[in-house]
Write a structure and sequence with these properties.
Helices cover about 35% and strands about 20% of the residues. The chain is of the alpha/beta class and about 525 residues long. Helix 4 (about 130-150) packs across helix 6 and helix 4 (about 130-150) packs across helix 9.
Length: about 525
């Protein structure tokens, strides 16, 4: 039955309850707390961060997800993690990565994306000299998108008052962004580039962070990533990615907010069409003026394979049905967290790598392999004489969920060994130099991250016009908001940080807590 209450707004203890402590939820909560809101974050697990967290084993500190972090620049408006921490009096010491990613691709195509933009473009032109003009045109178009984003404070575009102030501050940038909202990166690439191999490289450039080829990747997202890796750069937080979440939690608590662990939300409580609180698994009810779901859109509103969403299925609005027609969960991952002998890693090895043997395998099960070695940047993450290797490859829940326990464990071992064999192309004899090994499957990701099918995030089920169909933070219910990678602008830590800024601004506007002046 639908959970209803007659709770009056005047008796609410909390201004906002945030369900989940992923980075999107924590940025929402920290931004609200910095405005003076009374905020409660409810996290089902015992540590914060979700896929942006860390866990410790036998002297190793492993990142749950990727360690290629955007948003820690020192200038402009796109350094959202730096800004979010600063707003609650916190700061992360970071270590600059000289290279975003080293590609190891079919036809012996090898290129490392240098932090220096001119060096990267020069290397790419050396590989495709006949496409010099096209390369310049495509990546400079990405810069034009990025420059629009970086010229204005990134807050909610659902707030008409804010949009008006931003338009008067930066009218050309606003018009520029509006132009690119319905466009995908593949459309732009093909406008300037003809070489099929170079277009495939643009595909893998998009796939490495969006898990989609260029035709399905919004141009605004591509402009942000392909430019910020040179502008703000890839900067690794000292102590591991989980430090970001830990510092945001400390900032929330210093602003008199609370973060409660092992507090799984069972249902959102409604009064008519308004969200007024949550019901926990232990049947405790907590009331609030607003509720924010940092769960995926599917875990919030239901969908195929979701038996018990946060919102009762009989009151799901048509807009969420439309969402499920347009987007599907991306694959999850098979993950390897390894502790290895340090001498297995050659000197001057890059921190991040992508391996693909055949172009046609890019979107197939376990076709692409991602590798990060964060100890090359921060040696404190592992015992002396050892390195961390975190490798992961896309893997669908469909290949795992029907297995019995014996077959499941056998598949984990076989698939883990296959991934190690692929890594031995970079690091010969790796299998003989493993000191510690943990294997995670899509079921592992679903269990610990509480994400539908253990998914990395939503991907279009059809060709869509850029970011236009992506939902924002508000929902069809009063007082209920969504945040995270199921919201505009999508996947990645900096993207969900934007979603958090936008969500907090929208709620701050509703509660009358926002400053009139735009952020500096």
């Amino acid at each position: 039955m639908t959970l209803l209450t007659n709770k009056k707004n005047s008796s609410f203890k909390w201004d906002s309850i945030v369900i989940g402590s992923g980075l999107g939820g924590l940025v929402t909560a920290s931004q609200l707390a910095s405005k003076g809101a009374k905020v409660l974050v409810l996290e089902q697990y015992k540590i914060p961060g979700g896929s942006g967290g860390s866990f410790k084993r036998k002297g190793y500190s492993f990142d749950v997800g990727a360690s290629m972090i955007f948003g820690f620049g020192k200038k402009g408006y796109t350094n959202l993690l730096t800004r979010a921490l600063k707003d609650v009096g916190e700061e992360c010491e970071t270590i600059p990565d000289p290279t975003q990613l080293a590609y190891h691709l079919p036809d012996q195509l090898e290129i490392a994306v240098d932090r220096d933009y001119k060096k990267f473009i020069s290397k790419l032109i050396d590989l495709f000299p006949h496409e010099k003009k096209g390369i310049h045109h495509f990546y400079e178009t990405c810069w034009s998108v990025f420059n629009c984003l970086d010229s204005m404070p990134l807050l909610s575009i659902e707030d008409p008052g804010y949009l008006m102030k931003v338009f008067f501050k930066s009218p050309l940038s606003c018009l520029g962004l509006a132009r690119w909202l319905p466009v995908n990166a593949g459309d732009v690439a093909r406008r300037f580039i003809k070489d099929p191999s170079l277009l495939k490289f643009i595909d893998i450039e998009c796939f490495c962070w969006s898990v989609m080829p260029a035709d399905l990747t919004p141009m605004i997202n591509a402009g942000m990533v392909f430019s910020d890796r040179h502008y703000g750069g890839i900067n690794y937080p000292k102590g591991g990615v989980g430090v970001i979440a830990e510092k945001l939690v400390r900032g929330i608590e210093n602003c008199e907010g609370q973060v409660r662990y092992k507090s799984k939300v069972k249902k959102i409580i409604f009064e008519g069409k308004s969200a007024v609180g949550v019901l926990l698994e232990n049947d405790e009810k907590i009331y609030s003026k607003t509720v924010v779901s940092n769960a995926t859109r599917w875990d919030t509103f239901g969908g195929e394979g979701i038996n018990d969403p946060l919102v009762e299925s009989k009151i799901i609005p048509p807009s969420e049905e439309k969402w499920r027609e347009r987007y599907v969960p991306s694959p999850s991952f098979l993950s390897l967290h390894l502790g290895v002998n340090a001498d297995i890693i050659p000197p001057k090895t890059h921190c991040h790598h992508l391996l693909l043997d055949k172009w046609e395998e890019m979107e197939r099960e376990q076709g692409v392999s991602f590798v990060s070695i964060p100890t090359l940047l921060d040696s404190s993450l592992a015992p002396s004489g050892s390195h961390i290797i975190h490798a992961f490859t896309p893997s669908s829940m469909d290949n795992w969920e029907s297995l019995n326990n014996i077959d499941y464990l056998a598949k984990k071992k076989t698939d883990g060994d296959n991934l190690i064999s692929k890594l031995e192309k970079l690091f010969p004899n790796l299998s003989q130099n493993i000191l510690h090994k943990e294997i995670g499957s899509p079921k592992t990701h679903k269990r610990f991250l509480s994400r539908n099918q253990g998914s990395y995030g939503p991907i279009p089920s059809m060709r869509l016009p850029g970011l236009l169909p992506m939902p924002f933070n508000s929902t069809s219910f009063n007082g209920l908001y969504c945040v995270g990678d199921s919201c505009f602008p999508g996947q990645g830590l900096n993207a969900v940080a934007f979603s958090g800024f936008a969500c907090a601004h929208l709620i701050g506007s509703k509660l009358g807590m926002n400053k009139w002046k735009l952020p500096e």
